[in-house]
Amino acid sequence: MGFIEVKDLKVHYPIRGGVLNTIQDHVRAVDGVNLTIESGKTYGLVGESGSGKTTIGKTIIGLEKATSGQIFYEGQNVTNKARSRKEKYAAYNKDVQMIFQDATSSMNPKKRILDVIAEPMRNYFSYTPDEIKRKVVDLLEIVGMNEEAMYKYPHEFSGGQRQRIGVARAVASDPKLIIADEPTSALDLSVQAQVLNFMRRIQKEFGLSYLFISHDLGVVQHMSDDIAIMHKGRFVEQGSRKAVYNNPQHIYTKRLLSAIPDMDPTTRHAHKIERQRVEAEYDAQETDYYDTDGRVYDLQNFGENHLVALKPEAPNASLQNEKLNTGGER
Amino acid sequence: MAVERSLLEVNNLQVGFRFGEVYHNAVDGVSLTLKNNEILAIVGESGCGKSTLATSIMGLHDPKNTKISGEVLYKDLNLLDLNEKLYNRIRGNDIGMIFQDPLGSLNPLMTIFNQISEALEYHSDMNEEQRKARVLELLNQVGIPRPEQIMKAYPHELSGGMRQRVVIAIALANKPPIIIADEPTTALDVTIQAQILDLMNDIQDETGSGIILITHDLGVVAETADRVAVMYAGQIVEEAPVEELFANPLHPYTRSLLNSIPHELESDDDELHVIHGTVPSLQKLPRKGCRFAPRIPWIADEAHEEDPVLHEVSPNHKVRCTCWKHFHFEGEEK
User: Fold this and answer.
1) Residues B43, B48: Cα–Cα separation, whole Å
2) Dihedral over alpha carbons B194, B220, B29, B33 (to 10 degrees)
3) Phi then psi dihedrals of residue A37, to 5 deg
4) A4-246 is a CATH 3.10.50.40 domain
5) Which of A84, A119, A300, B194 has the highest count of CB atoms within 10 angstroms of its CB?
């Protein structure tokens, strides 16, 4: 059993309109999602823009309110309690931290790095100023920066350095789970490598768990143990990294995976044909994978640690696909 | 082999930005040629000068704060000598441009028809009806569904991918022989990116134009380019046909970049390659010697050239400096 469990989470936003500004409908940003994060593991959440992946992260940490469903932290129901000042939720607040995509806007420009990193410690621990300084130096060292950085301001650093400071701040309260929302999307390749390496090193050192949210399938594959692919607020496929990447079943997963650019220019043509075949299949078989309202079906067990959202009436949907595929290749 | 005439030739281009009283070169001696019917990718990380190169070819730099020297030859004209009026006749007509942010390059108050038609009005003497026919043709070409309706829409009514298609339609409006695309898919989701890249390839097949594709994404390069120039700190450090570059990368920077691409982990200790140090700022950039040398300090100074130039090490494969011959990754035996 994982130490964070999300059960049937729904986050709906009302659409208001009409003369009396009444609620006309809802945007179902997250619409019935279950996930379990195991201690010391990384859970990758993949989807295109607007799929609802960020909303899940924000709801776990309490920046958005859940419409229904529950979030359990070590067995305790903490749904919508993240901002609560009650003693019994203090551990949850301390143990779940977040790294944002845009490090610059997530830091107060008027605070020195010392204060940026020390803030969570001041909130949750009663260290003396000297202890805080020592801990900040340690944290900076972990993310590969030296002591001098403490007395500088956020604008004095490069994007990659700021993102590393963001990582250091997230670690400062000794959390157990870090929600990383597109932590490297704004970074160059070589800087991204640096940040990802740091994140993995810290994970090993502190036994951290990550909820790693990203649209970049390559980065998620590199970081994650388990993966969920999200579309239209629901999971289309969920399971171990190997199951999802090597044996994708849902047409949307196949479509996403086939769209990843191929690093080998010599197979470019074959890759393009394959991608367009999957794209055509996606258009043709949409009704097999989405119900009449365009909603993703419920997840079904497909194999060990592998769930796929398939049409309920046709348990042998994959068989049908095979028939179609062979028909197309003839 | 017949001598292919190049479409666009850039010779020793230097673009300097003013910092107080001094100018620092962001593009420092770049020479390249673009041939008909090819996609030339220019790849590098932020600050390497790749976008500056594009804007100076288009004459879009701020003349008060930039100093440009060198040549950009197109049809026996040096574009850098043109005045604004003449440049305007080249831009859009001979060189089309596609920018990264489609929303920023479209006018929010103009319908899609008017935006595309504007380019036609400026550069041709088509009448209203001909323009309408051409706009429809363009929207079909870039794969926009229901073009009759979309023509009347405003940019905010379209999705990101559709907007980028409109931007491409504008760039194509006058059938320019040259297209410069600056990070055309960076703001888009992977599935949309794949569609836009396919579209660019199709357009190139159809029109035979030469495309300069500026990107930081090596995957995009591998999928679309015919030839690649890798830029670091204002200079081209390696240039090769795309298959050659990926099969046989030589410059330490190219090799390091390829090594830092995230991949599936083989073991728990498996780490991504990190390039030592950081890219120096323009003011602090060493102008003498190999610019990549500070990033590979474990390589002996003697390995570098005193004044590194591009060497053609095999046909069409050029590498700057001599350090590549002695390069090995840190902690690795050569």
Assistant:
1) 9
2) -70
3) -110, 125
4) no
5) B194
Q: What is the ipTM of this complex?
A: 0.85
Question: Using an 8 Å Cβ cutoff, are B73 and B11 in contact?
Answer: yes
Which chain B residue lies closest to A221 (C-alpha atoms)? B264
Same domain, residue pair B97 and B161 = yes
Residues B208 and B306 reside in one and the same domain: no
Q: Does an H or E element contain A287, and which?
A: helix A286-289
Q: Phi and psi of A5, rounded to 5°?
A: -130, 130
Same-domain pairing of B201 and B243: no
Cβ of residue A131 closer than 8 Å to a chain B Cβ: no
| B219 within a domain of the structure (yes/no) | yes
Average of pLDDT values for B302-314? Answer: 93
Q: Does A135 touch chain B (CB under 8 A)?
A: no
Judged against a pLDDT cut of 60, whether residue B225 lies above it is answered with yes
pLDDT for res A330: 36
Question: Domain check: are B304 and B204 in the same one?
Answer: no
B interface with A, Cβ–Cβ below 8 Å: 45-46, 160, 189-191, 193-194, 197-198, 201, 216-220, 222-223, 225, 242-243, 246-247, 256-257, 260-265, 268, 271-275, 278
Q: A268 and B223 in contact by Cβ < 8 A?
A: yes
Stretches in chain A below the pLDDT threshold 70: 1, 313-330
Give the residue numbers spanning the domain of B29. Answer: 6-225
- Residue B46 has a pLDDT of 84
Region B160-185: mean pLDDT is: 91
Cross-chain CB nearest to A189 (options B160, B222, B257): B257
Q: Which has the higher per-residue pLDDT, B105 or B254? A: B254
Token pair for B300 = 């002996």
Q: Which of B191, B202, B217 to mutate to test the interface with A (most CBs of A within 10 A)?
A: B191
- Chain B residue with the nearest C-alpha to that of A222: B264
Q: Are residues B214 and B249 in the same domain?
A: no
A 10 A CB-CB count for B331 gives 6
In 10 A of CB A263, how many CB atoms? 16
- Chain A residue numbers with beta carbons less than 8 Å from the beta carbon of B46 are 188
- Do B75 and B198 have their domain in common? yes
pLDDT for B2 equals: 45
Q: How far is A196 from chain B (nearest CA, A)?
A: 8
Q: Order of strands across the sheet with A68-73? A: A22-37, A4-17, A68-73, A76-77
Kindly state whether residue B27 falls inside one of the protein's structural domains.
yes
> B150 and B299 share a domain?
no
CA distance B72 to chain A (A): 29
Number of domains in chain B: 2
Q: How confident is the model at residue B203 (pLDDT cuts 50, 70, 90)?
A: confident
Whether B193 and B250 map to the same domain: the answer is no
What are the b/e assignments for A91-113, b being 16+ CB within 10 Å? Answer: ebbbbbbbbbbebeebbeeeebb
- Over residues A138-193, the pLDDT tens digits come to 888 888 788 888 999 999 888 888 888 998 999 898 899 999 999 888 888 888 89
Q: A194 and chain B: CB distance < 8 Å anywhere?
A: yes
The domain ranges of chain A are: 4-246, 247-330
Burial class (CB in 10 A: 0-12, 13-18, 19+), A86: exposed
CB-CB under 8 Å, A192 with B274: no
Share the mean pLDDT of chain B: 90
A192 lies within 8 A of chain B by CB: yes
Write out chain A residues lying below 8 Å of B220, CB-based. Answer: 261
Of B45, B222, B256, the CB nearest to A261: B222
Looking at residue B48, which CATH number applies to its domain? 3.40.50.300
